[in-house]
Amino acid sequence: MRKSIATVSLSGSLSEKLGAVAAAGFDGVEIFENDLLASPLGPEDIRKRAADLGLRIDLYQPFRDFEAVPEDVLENNLRRAEQKFSVMERLGADTMLVCSSVSPDSIDEDELAADQLRLLAQRAEAHGIRLAYEALAWGRHVSTYDHAWRIVELADHAALGTCLDSFHILSRGSDPRGIERIPGEKIFFLQLADAPRVAMDVLQWSRHYRCFPGQGGFDVAGLVHAALRAGYTGPLSLEVFNDVFRQADASRTAVDAMRSLLTLEESVGLASPPGRVVPSSFAFAELAAADTEPLRALLGALGFVRTGRHGGKPVELWEQGEARLVVNTAGASRREGPALTALGLETPDPGAATRRAESLLTPVIPRRRAAGDVPLEAVEAPDGTELFFCRTRREDHPSWTDDFAPVLPLEDTAGPEPGTVVTRIDHVALTQPWHRFDEASLFYPSVLGLQPNESLDLADPYGLFRSRAVANPEGTLRIALNVAPVPGERETHPQHIALATDDIVTTARRVRDHGGGLLPIPGNYYDDLRARHGLADDTLATLRELGILYDRDEYGEFHHCYTVTLGRVFFELVQRTGGYRGYGAPNATVRLAAQHTAELGLRPG
Amino acid sequence: MRKSIATVSLSGSLSEKLGAVAAAGFDGVEIFENDLLASPLGPEDIRKRAADLGLRIDLYQPFRDFEAVPEDVLENNLRRAEQKFSVMERLGADTMLVCSSVSPDSIDEDELAADQLRLLAQRAEAHGIRLAYEALAWGRHVSTYDHAWRIVELADHAALGTCLDSFHILSRGSDPRGIERIPGEKIFFLQLADAPRVAMDVLQWSRHYRCFPGQGGFDVAGLVHAALRAGYTGPLSLEVFNDVFRQADASRTAVDAMRSLLTLEESVGLASPPGRVVPSSFAFAELAAADTEPLRALLGALGFVRTGRHGGKPVELWEQGEARLVVNTAGASRREGPALTALGLETPDPGAATRRAESLLTPVIPRRRAAGDVPLEAVEAPDGTELFFCRTRREDHPSWTDDFAPVLPLEDTAGPEPGTVVTRIDHVALTQPWHRFDEASLFYPSVLGLQPNESLDLADPYGLFRSRAVANPEGTLRIALNVAPVPGERETHPQHIALATDDIVTTARRVRDHGGGLLPIPGNYYDDLRARHGLADDTLATLRELGILYDRDEYGEFHHCYTVTLGRVFFELVQRTGGYRGYGAPNATVRLAAQHTAELGLRPG
């Protein structure tokens, strides 16, 4: 189907918006009146600009507070409308959105509303214009889509139809199945927006928190389904007001918007992009560091062994069990110390995974490879992390590990106990830039087929983090996305890699004894742990000694501890018992404060 | 009364918070449990730290999900409580906050709740501890203060009283007058918080949007009155969770908090700080500029005439009617161009105004004066703007203008028409740093006695502004406070000075003809204006020619236009007719977009 977007959804000037919308592959736009008013370009210029960009002007919006008014007000409203019609003719727009009135002037009488809308439709028709009447969720007398439709039916004019907006319908909890009873040709327009499920005043909710379908909690696909069954054939159009998008780069937002519509089309069976290829585990995590010495010492203490060196680049492979870390000193020097720059995702079909990502407008990373290197498929996540689709040491596919020549272990990691205390990467936590969080919330499910968890708030001494995990259905690949709810310094909060172990006490002791530096946890935490969970004294003493945190849920137990931070990255050791599903969120405040204390060089009491 | 604050209200580590609280003059603190758990200091260390700072630990909080549970859960809950009692003994805290349960384990039976709370009170008493039972607004069975009080009454134990929290009470719309029926000695604690009046889920509202009394929309003073009439003698304690305060500097927040409590004490008659001295008009606005040439040209075009030069500093006085501008080239060089740095406020008693400000912890600005200079009283507003309290050319007080020696007008402003087309400063608009907006919302009413208007949202092409005006009762002194709802570049949006005129067309022509540079407004705006307000064609043509914007309200009409921006400041010309009260908010989007267009050097069509 044709895809469209309202200019109000993007930041910038009107001409900037049109360019971004065209570049992302949209077919049309809704012109938001304020964007036109604020533009230095006249309506004819905008018409030409849109035509040059291959964009149809699908809708001019909104016309407010028209219907069900006393005679004298009606006259004034018709005069207002005539001026809009004239602008629309200059603009080349043939459909106008008419919102249900919020005015105290309006009268609660459907017959009157229908009569006046019929009159307006007659006037519109004379200009070759159609009217799409929409119920605002906060309309004074008309606030539900079925009510708006009853009035349209009553007015019974060819130039008058209805506009459905998923936000207005779903925010009120209306049942969208009733849409199927509306004749498809009378649905003149379909506006789509999602929103997080929060209980708040619907006007505030609409103005500040709308998001693209798939980024919130509404069943937008179900609503589109109903409209399709009704016979709707017009464009799928996004209309989103959102404090983040207002500040974000328009071209980036337009791509995010298009990814949302493509995913939505797939979910309602309107399109068949290459299918999702869900990754099964982490093939590796890549750390970039200009100076690798502190990192090597920490990896050694964690039990990792250097097993390979890349043939043509200053890149090393470190392994332990199924946990693999790539240490890269190429690229720009990083003053900030080590950082997590890429993830290898173990996947059944790397080529298919890339085709899926590309079809959803994910930037594919061009690889300049030396002759003989294994071809690597990689795309860029919203936060800039590179995602490599891999098959590691399988017979059916070249393995990225083949680029690494075996090396002798470094002396200091070739101790008497090379043992695999760490078994695999349990999860990684990626700090998201503030204005990429919604985009990431859609990206991981739609591109990679990961399932999102609920969002959580975590407090640190200087602010909050919002955290949302995505995982494959088996829980063998998990990524925690963290973001500060407002922009600020915490956008550069370190990333971390959580390593699974079957024996956290032994592992933590090993790290400590090899000088790896565990994060000290305040004694007060353990006094409280006794009260909360009734742990035995000797157990508590061990946890306290090693700075191990504890949590449990209905499925099992969770023990975890942290290394100190190196540059922009730290490690967590985790032991899950009995199917525990979380990430130790109740301990986050204590951990974050402890990291702050460690940063200041203070010692816990 | 004693004044206290919960540590959760401030950012940073627990020891950092205690220092800030003591420095702001508080008598005590509530220790928030998570702050203790996350602290590297043990309870005894914190006890000592607080004692050294002269702070009493008034409350330990919160103890959750205790009451009205089955026997087996009760046992566990009592074990939890014993551990808290032991921490409190080490901490030297004698009162524990017990929140009404939100647990699905709890049973809706007041008798059971009372029995178990009595049991807990017996245990507490053995440690010399009292319990303050509080109804959370989202408590499972107990969510109102009168219900909590009924249970306390039923339990009937000397060590059990109630805690009242203004947020929990007022957010539910409960009538606080019922508090007067509670015996004062059974109100063990009073927690105070305000909040903006928004319709949203009460838990989200509480966690993210609380603010200090006087910064929101609740009648906190009325509630304190009721508690005082009941005979409450404990501390007034602030407990505020707020996303801004979580990031703000603790010592700054603590001062803001204390100012709120001092103002609250005054409003309920508990204290009599020096009275408010409400300013009557702007004595002057001060512009700092390293290079004054572009500014001089603009002032000349606006009809200002240079009338004086300061005796000892590179400072000039420019006047027109009652509008006075001070142009200062002293101080640091300003790459950004001219900026608004100070305001002179015409006030009946400058000394008393300063004493008022000082009593509310406003920084007083020390003046290094040359011998013979007129003494000036000045304080610093939350955004750093200097506020001078003045009496201009009155017989009863030295006038700041006496520091300026008369000069001949500059040649280029001494044209044939020195006329006073501008009569006075109508208002100034100050862009607030994101984390100072709440502080400013309280500062102007409490320190200067200005009355706040409602907050408005204004959209520009790259985000939103929130705008709130404060004004004296006569409307002869108005300040618009603008802030971006999230931090970002728009914190450095220019300030502006609005100049009143009785004939905006003549004034705007004069500016234009003298090369002053008016902000061009898009033609689309005027096409729309015709439709909205039905203005006559020749009127519209004049407005269009000069870029004059138009608005009206129930009281009258408003015409306004803007100069181009110089550095960080621009001027507005305004003409109010018939008592119009606003600031042209409906035109803000067009104006902001036009400023952006002008910045890019584009020309409107």
TrEMBL record, chains A, B:
Reactions listed under catalytic activity: 3-dehydroshikimate = 3,4-dihydroxybenzoate + H2O
Binding site for a divalent metal cation: 134, 165, 191, 239
E.C. no: 4.2.1.118
Domain VOC: 424-564
A molecular function (GO) term: isomerase activity
Keyword annotations: Isomerase, Lyase, Metal-binding
Pathway(s) the chain acts in: Aromatic compound metabolism; 3,4-dihydroxybenzoate biosynthesis
Cofactor needs: a divalent metal cation
List of residues binding Mg(2+): 427, 496, 572
Known function: Catalyzes the conversion of 3-dehydroshikimate to protocatechuate (3,4-dihydroxybenzoate), a common intermediate of quinate and shikimate degradation pathways.
HAMAP family, alphabetized: DSD
Protein family: Belongs to the bacterial two-domain DSD family.
Protein name as catalogued: 3-dehydroshikimate dehydratase
Native organism taxonomy: Bacteria, Bacillati, Actinomycetota, Actinomycetes, Kitasatosporales
